[in-house]
Write a structure and sequence with these properties.
Two copies of one chain form a homodimer.
Chain A: E1 3-7, H1 12-21, E2 26-30, E3 45-47, E4 63-65, H2 72-75, E5 85-87, H3 94-109, H4 112-120, E6 137-141, H5 145-156, E7 160-165, E8 177-180, H6 184-188, E9 193-196, H7 210-215, E10 221-224, H8 233-241, E11 247-250, E12 270-272, H9 283-302
Parallel strand pairs in A: 1-2, 1-3, 3-4, 4-5, 6-7, 6-9, 7-8, 9-10, 10-11, 11-12
């Protein structure tokens, strides 16, 4: 009999689903933010992002099911004992984050951020020419579930999509052109929209430098819906205040929350949202997490194949 | 030799195109807003929206090519002499207006109008659950070129689309369900998004009453990118301030510009843009107008078939 520690805010239907998948297991339920120290030593299976620093207490842990896509903190050396299987929730956030990014893209192309500001001052002001997603060259940096969904939506609206990933491979549907991330600089010169969905790994820290923004068109739109540390705040401020690019939207900052003193808040040509593109903002997201966790729980208990296995070498899904 | 009066801001390439289509004609060029009184009596063909009240001076007029889609003011009795052919620019504004409406739809679904307000106050605030275009029921009222393009984009993003038009007919591609405008009330009860693209005719004046907004879901989003007089400002204010629907976006008001004293400006759940979804905000719009005008000019001179002929009985394209 395995003990399953669930560290998520569940409704009754979610408990039923998990308990059906883990028939015969003992379930311990707690909520994110609550003290789990006493429960951890009993857990053979954990579902939910228990803080990594606490996991050394989970001495019997065999399977760790994250409720996030990002897994780098858990894949880092010393966090989980050797032999623990790590699985993430890739797929649960795709629709939510990709739709948010598309909304932000169109909003900036149509100057709706400026019209909103103008509305709040009761001003009937015309901001002139607008962009069009149809015919735009859209570079998608990070071609996981989220990036791919975003690319497919942009293409469905008439964009030419360039997907960038670490390793070349077969070109997925929805991507007109597949490039390697190390070809980024060249791609940036051609893009009308640069949408970044990179996870927070050591390779992606401050990946976008001022040189990258200088390489972009001055009419380009930049989006970051990955992790905040991909762009240094000062670099982003400079790129936007100097007009190296036309506008940007970031849902993630470094640090988070962004301090009130940050000059980023005040930029007219930046749309800043407080890390809300994912989370549980969309109803289906949490349902999908429970689906993934249920499948993995049943598979693990029966010796079947897990989904969303994280590669400890990269912090990404294998 | 016909005399063609062009009342549009042209670049040299536009003149070349028109003069190639109207080889042998005499061209008179003037700009919108300039005095055309002396030129009107000479014109057999007019390209561009000369104010309707002046057209009684165009005694020789045979063909009137509008640069707008809306044609009601020109189709009204007494404006054009019997026998004058009236053609409009349907097709030129479709991409521009439809993309603007889609941008506004997604912006409201994702609360980006609230996040923009919050950003301007340097506040890191989470506004909770969001909507999703995928799976939304989207009612498109007015299924001309603009409405149809909007429906197709919404469907490409996963929406279920209900198109409403005056007369039933064959269901066009991109529309999951075709209904008659007189079935509007029933459709409103099912829609997550109601997007209205009605032209300004006498039938559409104040078409949306408080009863219509009461019939909608309280989570519904309403958009008006047609003409402002389809909704009375007071009715819209009441619907939004009382929470009969969740949010709205209007690009058109009645009157325009909206007076600074209007309470609509201050509504958090309204996105108000100053009639900018169409016009010449998108590069391709004006190019398409010149294409249509060139085709009609050549066709008229050679006795060929005109496109975009306006029906004087309805004010719509036939």
């Amino acid at each position: 009999m395995k003990t399953v520690l669930v560290y998520l805010p569940l409704e009754p239907r979610h408990r039923e689903k998990l308990e059906a998948a883990g028939a015969g297991c003992r379930f311990l339920y707690t909520l994110p933010g609550e003290d789990v120290d006493a429960l951890l030593p009993q857990a053979e299976i954990i579902i939910g992002n228990v803080p990594p620093a606490k996991l050394n207490k989970a001495e019997k842990l065999e399977l760790m099911q994250l409720n996030s896509s990002g897994a780098a903190e858990y894949a880092a050396p010393g966090v989980l004992r050797p032999g623990v299987r790590l699985v993430n929730a890739t797929g649960a956030y795709g629709r939510s984050v990709a739709e948010h990014a598309l909304a932000a893209t169109l909003m900036l192309q149509k100057n709706l951020h400026l019209y909103r500001d103008s509305q709040r001052q009761a001003r009937w002001t015309d901001f002139g020419k607008v962009g069009s997603i149809a015919g735009s060259v859209v570079a998608v940096v990070g071609l996981g579930d989220i990036g791919l969904r975003y690319a497919r939506m942009a293409k469905a609206l008439g964009a030419y999509t360039i997907g960038l990933k670490r390793r070349a491979g077969e070109r997925p549907e929805g991507v007109d052109e597949l490039r390697r991330t190390d070809e980024l600089m060249e791609v940036l010169t051609r893009a009308d929209v640069v949408a970044s969905f990179l996870p927070g790994t050591k390779d992606t820290e401050h990946l976008y430098t001022l040189e990258h923004f200088k390489a972009m068109k001055d009419s380009a739109i930049f989006l970051n819906c990955g992790r905040g540390n991909a762009v240094d705040g000062q670099v982003l401020y400079e790129a936007l205040s100097k007009g190296l690019i036309a506008a940007a939207s970031v849902d993630v900052t470094d640090p988070e929350p962004l301090p009130e003193s940050s000059p980023l808040w005040g930029l007219d040509n930046l749309l800043l949202t407080p890390h809300v593109s994912g989370g549980y903002h969309l109803y289906e997201t949490f349902e999908t997490i429970i689906d993934i966790a249920s499948k993995n729980l049943a598979a693990y208990l029966s010796g079947g194949e897990l989904v969303n296995i994280v590669d400890f070498a990269t912090g990404y899904r294998k």
